[in-house]
Amino acid sequence: MPINPLHNEKELLSRIAGGDGAAFEQLFDYYWQGIYEVAFTLTKSREIARDMVQEIFLKLWLVREELPHKDNFTGFLFIVARNHIYDELRKKLNEQPFATHLQTWFTESPLGADQRLLYQESQTLVHKAIAQLPEQQRQVYLLTRESGWTQDEIAQHLQVSKNTVKTHMSRALTAIREYLLTHAQGILLIMTLLEIWQ
């Protein structure tokens, strides 16, 4: 954390717009810890969190000439950081090693009261997402995820083709993800996406 408050932000932003690397380093030193803590809270990975911080500040450097014109630079920075972190998380949740890492962390870490509440909220939100699916999509999803049926078994049970089962499952997952992305944030979003990923 910075020792002194950043009282000269406007001056720094003007210098950065002109390509002053030392001024940019001051800005980085002041803000990086707060962004890192958010990234680490959501990823549970120090390496990924550090990479995210570097990428966020690279984005700032690339638009440095616009920075002095931001009325609320802090608000702008944290919107850029939030969007970048969420975008990267959405990509990484499709990578098995990262998703497994998060699942292990949530499974093996002792659940405190806050985490238990989050877990309950994630369960409720996923059930709401499933409930809003069209009937056949919901049936296919539940038979696959909760009953453990194969696609062939579901196709025979519903008297449809295997390709139809695949299509219903794909659409169900897309609809559930979209619902969760619009109804959850932060760790709750990660927990709900992990639940449907497995």
Explain what this protein looks like in three dimensions.
Helices cover 78% and strands 0% of the residues. The chain has 198 residues and is mostly helical. It folds into 2 domains: 9-92, RNA polymerase sigma factor, region 2, helix turn helix motif (Rna Polymerase Sigma Factor, Chain: A); 111-197, Arc Repressor Mutant, subunit A. The protein is elongated, with a radius of gyration of 22 Å. The two termini are 37 Å apart. The model is unreliable at 1-5 (pLDDT under 50).
Brief digest:
This protein has 198 residues and is mainly α. The chain folds into two domains: 9-92, RNA polymerase sigma factor, region 2, helix turn helix motif (Rna Polymerase Sigma Factor, Chain: A, Orthogonal Bundle), CATH 1.10.1740; 111-197, Winged helix-like DNA-binding domain superfamily/Winged helix DNA-binding domain (Arc Repressor Mutant, subunit A, Orthogonal Bundle). 78% of the residues lie in helices and 0% in strands.
Largest sheet, in brief, is:
none
Mean pLDDT score: 81
> Helical segment tally?
10
Computed CA radius of gyration, to the nearest angstrom = 22 Å
Structural class: mainly alpha
The CATH superfamily title of the largest domain = Winged helix-like DNA-binding domain superfamily/Winged helix DNA-binding domain
State the helicity in percent bands.
Answer: over 70%
The number of distinct β-strands equals 0
Shape: elongated
SSE pattern: HHHHHHHHHH
